[in-house]
């Protein structure tokens, strides 16, 4: 054994200090990156929660404005007419809403007169219940949107919060929101069941003179609103508090949702959200350790691995400095430890590869020669092809890159990755990818920036995001605006023109030309009514179209035969005023799992179309059958003998606002079959149309079967 060298202890200590310092720096850096990732994820989740509140409250404000405009547009608003205007709201699943009512003002001396007037306007049993003295605001009619009891006769002026909101709405002429309070209809409930709630109020004006009639008021229970609105945004990871400043500047809680579980709330956010005429504050708290993908064992692994490696190196230096023989033994031990470190590094590389393979956004990295060094699976799915193993000159042809117009080729020198190789970053550049593997084309958004390789050369990295669905929605919205502008303009023109004819006819009546003027007035009034019905149909189908997309699915086991029988009975008892009674056959139908309200709408639309698109004078013939499929779904088929659908248009009829070229003589908006497709696809099924041999059309759609139906062999049901 050789003598120890005098500097061995110092050298070993220096190696240990340097190794520990490097390990500490690396682990702290990783921990800070995880903290930054938690902050980014918290910002995204907070933004999603705030967007949910903005979207839902704006939706409520728009509904109130539309309802107030519809109420003010009536020549003489009655209770039943207000019920017809608000009836479609029952199917819209408004989160937390308990009812929408019409409120009218009255002074102490006017109560009896107002009560008598509204009894004559259809509310025969109305009893107004004034509270206190001065100005009152009575509920005279309305539509309940949950299981609440009717509130006719209630005086909203008795509570400060709704009274202030009504006053603000009347003064501003805009929708106003109240402070948080217990709804007057909830005061009869036990204290533990009462919720902090609020109302939205919109003034109602009539005629060009803007005569004030009252208010349309929507009551919303805060906790129910919070739970439904944040069901997806919170995902059980966030504590959410929605509050608003009251008239005394104190902050009042509208609703709270505690869902972040145990542990400290080390992430906090607050967002101001405009709601009608006020600003609400959304406060979000979360436990960073509970957020998915934020905390990992990597910093601890680095510390443990670094300390182990430092210990090994320190021991190795000590052994080399003290004894050649002992060094040989320690070298063998150190080699084994290093191999273990290599295994850990390989596992870390595998983890990074798994992360890149699992993310939904595409990632691509190219070297200075323009060849791809990395293409994750998401990028290959979006681009439709793997890299061409060629320079940038071949990218445009290989991937089929076009501007979003779908016609103009994307210039090679403007491609984001090409610009990044030149040192220029790009963000959110939109382009169309179309080639034989993507014949319909995909619209992607690309962000790219330059990077530097370990050899000091310049490369580039790009992130791809598929925005095809968003673009399709934008196109649909443009089509929606065009159809609404066209289909509402024509009946409005007719209403105005025939209203003027009625006025002229009445003038002639006064002049003594009774018979001819009376006939002209009747024809004009029929045109006005038909125009109003056309507008009402369009508005109703637009609301149904939105509900088919946004309404919450309430899945239950549904007796399909019973549901179809109800629809057939309703249609055959009053087949749209036709004297020819439909001949409808209903075969055996299995049970399905579906939302019964939305499924009824699909059946009713398809049966109604089969009746409507039948040649004049011919009795509609419809066969409704169903069977269990081998894959466990139920296939429902509705076959008719109507006018049919022209070749090449069987798939197009399910697009929004599309009407078959041979059906222009029949009234409609082109939304019925689009609503059917939305509802079926939301259930996980598919819908299609095909020619019926011998004439007519066969519509078929699939739905999930119940557990009982799925267990019955195919061919039995």
Automatic annotation (TrEMBL):
One of its GO terms (cellular component) is plasma membrane. GO terms for biological process: osmosensory signaling via phosphorelay pathway. Keywords: ATP-binding, Kinase, Membrane, Nucleotide-binding, Phosphoprotein, Transferase, Transmembrane, Transmembrane helix, Two-component regulatory system. Its EC number is 2.7.13.3. Residues 427-479 form the PAC domain. Pfam families: CHASE, HATPase_c, HisKA, PAS_4. It catalyses: ATP + protein L-histidine = ADP + protein N-phospho-L-histidine. It is an enzyme of class 2 (transferase). One of its GO terms (molecular function) is protein kinase activator activity. Residues 483-707 form the Histidine kinase domain. InterPro entries: BphY/WalK/GraS-like, CHASE_dom, CHASE_sf, HATPase_C_sf, HATPase_dom, His_kinase_dom, HisK_dim/P_dom, HisK_dim/P_sf. This is Sensor-like histidine kinase SenX3. The lineage of its organism: Bacteria, Bacillati, Actinomycetota, Actinomycetes, Micromonosporales.
């Amino acid at each position: 054994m050789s003598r120890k060298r005098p500097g061995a202890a110092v050298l070993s200590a220096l190696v240990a200090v340097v190794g520990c310092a490097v390990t500490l720096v690396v682990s702290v850096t990783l921990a800070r990156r995880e903290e930054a990732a938690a902050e980014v994820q918290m910002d995204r989740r907070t933004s999603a929660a705030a967007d949910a509140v903005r979207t839902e409250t704006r939706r409520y404000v728009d509904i109130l404005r539309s309802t107030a405009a519809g109420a003010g547009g009536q020549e003489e608003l009655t209770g039943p007419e207000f019920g017809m205007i608000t009836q479609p709201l029952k199917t819209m699943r408004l989160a937390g809403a308990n009812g929408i009512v019409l409120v009218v003002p009255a002074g102490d001396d006017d109560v009896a007169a107002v009560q008598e007037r509204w009894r004559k306007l259809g509310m025969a049993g109305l009893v107004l219940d004034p509270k206190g003295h001065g100005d009152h605001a009575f509920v005279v009619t309305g539509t309940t949107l949950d299981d609440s009891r009717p509130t006719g006769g209630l005086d909203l002026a008795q509570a400060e919060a709704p009274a202030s909101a009504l006053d603000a709405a009347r003064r501003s002429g805009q929708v106003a929101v109240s402070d948080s309070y217990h709804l007057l209809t909830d005061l009869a409930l036990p204290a533990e069941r009462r919720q902090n709630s609020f109302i939205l109020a919109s003034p109602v004006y009539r005629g060009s003179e803007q005569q004030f009639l009252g208010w349309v008021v929507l009551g919303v229970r805060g906790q129910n609103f919070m739970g439904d609105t944040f069901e997806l945004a919170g995902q059980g990871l966030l504590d959410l508090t929605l509050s608003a400043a009251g008239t005394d500047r104190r902050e009042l809680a509208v609703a709270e949702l505690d869902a972040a579980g145990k542990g400290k709330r080390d992430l906090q956010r607050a967002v101001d959200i405009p709601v009608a005429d006020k600003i609400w504050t959304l406060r979000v708290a979360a436990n960073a350790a509970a957020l998915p993908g934020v905390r990992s064992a990597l910093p601890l692994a680095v510390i443990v691995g670094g300390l182990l490696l430092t210990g090994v190196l320190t021991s190795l230096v000590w052994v080399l400095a003290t004894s050649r023989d002992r060094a040989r033994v320690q070298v063998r031990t150190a080699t084994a430890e290093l191999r273990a470190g290599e295994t850990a590094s390989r596992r870390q590389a595998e983890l990074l590869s798994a992360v890149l393979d699992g993310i939904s956004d595409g990632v691509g990295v190219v070297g200075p020669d323009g060849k791809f060094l990395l293409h994750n699976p998401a990028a290959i799915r979006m681009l439709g092809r793997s890299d061409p193993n060629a320079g940038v000159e071949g990218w445009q042809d290989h991937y089929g890159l076009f501007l979003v117009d779908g016609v103009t080729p994307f210039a090679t020198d403007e491609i984001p990755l090409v610009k990044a190789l030149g040192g220029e970053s790009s963000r959110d550049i939109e382009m169309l990818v179309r080639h034989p593997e993507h014949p319909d084309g995909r619209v992607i958004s690309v962000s790219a920036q330059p990077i530097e390789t370990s050899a000091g050369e310049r490369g580039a990295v790009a992130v791809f995001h598929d925005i095809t669905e968003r673009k399709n929605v934008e196109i649909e919205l443009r089509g929606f605006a065009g159809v609404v502008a066209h289909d509402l303009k024509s009946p409005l023109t007719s209403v105005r023109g025939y209203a003027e004819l009625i006025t002229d006819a009445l003038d002639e009546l006064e002049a003594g030309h009774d018979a001819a003027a009376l006939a002209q007035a009747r024809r004009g009034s029929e045109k006005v009514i038909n125009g109003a019905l056309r507008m009402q149909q369009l508005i109703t189908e637009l609301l149904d179209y939105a509900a088919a997309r946004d309404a919450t699915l309430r899945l239950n086991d549904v007796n399909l035969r019973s549901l179809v029988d109800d629809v057939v009975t309703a249609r055959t008892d009053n087949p749209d005023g036709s004297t020819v009674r439909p001949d409808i056959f209903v075969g055996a139908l299995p049970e399905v799992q579906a939302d019964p309200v939305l499924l009824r709408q699909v059946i009713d639309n398809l049966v109604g179309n089969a009746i409507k698109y039948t040649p004049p004078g011919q009795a509609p013939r419809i066969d409704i059958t169903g069977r269990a499929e081998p894959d466990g779904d139920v296939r429902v088929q509705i076959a008719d003998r109507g006018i049919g659908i022209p070749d090449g248009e069987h798939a197009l009829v399910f697009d929004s606002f599309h009407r078959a070229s041979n059906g222009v003589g029949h009234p409609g908006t082109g939304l019925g079959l689009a609503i059917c497709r939305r509802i079926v696809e939301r259930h996980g099924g598919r819908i299609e149309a095909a020619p019926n041999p011998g004439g007519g059309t066969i519509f078929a759609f699939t739905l999930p079967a119940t557990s009982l139906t799925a267990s019955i062999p195919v061919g039995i049901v």
